[in-house]
Amino acid sequence: MTDKAVDQLSQVVSKGAAFTALGVDRATWCRRYRCSTPPPKPQRLDVIQSRALSVVERKQIRATLESEQFIDEAPATVYAKLLDQGAYLGSVSTTYPILHSHDEVRERRRQATHPAHKKPKLIATKQSEVWSWDITKLHEPAKWT
């Protein structure tokens, strides 16, 4: 409704005067109808940071995390143990992108695997040997008996 009124009134007076007369905010109207084109976004250049880890340092961190001593430790635990030994390879937050790039961000501890649970079978060989609320699951010596 106000858009049509602004268009009709702007033919008689300026747009600024039409906005003032109708009580329409100029910024809202321009944002809604985009009086000007948005500025183009600059292209992003891939720049290697000066403080980024080198390939050798990344391999050293990964080799340390996968060593026999630290294979089942969390990166924070490895970081603390290395600091106790007087060695610093990188912060905890730098180890996660390295592990993530090799798809190794997961539970690092060895997990116990449990055998599949077998469902108990109730087999009645004579009368009153097996009692159950639901007789549909009871197996008998012969089929359909």
What topology emerges from the helices and strands here?
Elements: H1 2-12, H2 15-22, H3 26-33, H4 55-65, H5 75-85, H6 92-101
Protein name: Putative transposase
Characterize the structure shown.
It is built from six helices and no strands. 41% of the residues lie in helices and 0% in strands. Helix 1 packs across helix 2. Among the domains are: 2-33; 55-101, no CATH class. It is flat and about 105 Å long. The model has no long low-confidence stretch (mean pLDDT 82). With 145 residues, it is mostly helical. The longest helix has 11 residues, at 2-12.
Task: Summarize the model shown.
Among the domains are: 2-33; 55-101, no CATH class. It has 6 helices and no strands. It has helices at 2-12, 15-22, 26-33, 55-65, 75-85, 92-101.
Number of helices: 6
Topology, number of strands: 0
β-sheet strand percentage: under 5%
Pattern of helices and strands: HHHHHH
User: Low-confidence parts, pLDDT < 50 over ≥5 residues?
Assistant: none
Largest sheet properties: none
Q: What is the mean predicted local confidence, pLDDT?
A: 82
- Using only C-alpha atoms, the radius of gyration works out to 37 Å
The secondary structure category is mainly alpha
Inertia-based shape? flat
Q: Report the span from N to C terminus.
A: 81 Å
Helix percentage range = 40-55%
Protein name: Putative transposase
List keywords for this structure.
mainly alpha, 41% helix, Putative transposase
